[in-house]
Amino acid sequence: xxxxxxxxxxxxxxxxxxxxxxxxxxxxxxxxxxxxxxxxxxxxxxxxxxxxxxxxxxxxxxxxxxx
Length: 67
Description:
By secondary structure, this protein is mainly alpha-helical. It has helices at 7-16, 18-46, 48-64.
């Protein structure tokens, strides 16, 4: 019966092949960012008043930001 991989085994595999784990991390991050953008777009469509207020707050922050 095959044993389940433990987190320690997974960490060791990540250390053995850093380029593979880095590529996998980038793929997971890209997928997460796509899903996050999709969720934000959905929230903006469902709650347009809140989205408008958030846009106005962001614009105000950008106008008052000092370089």
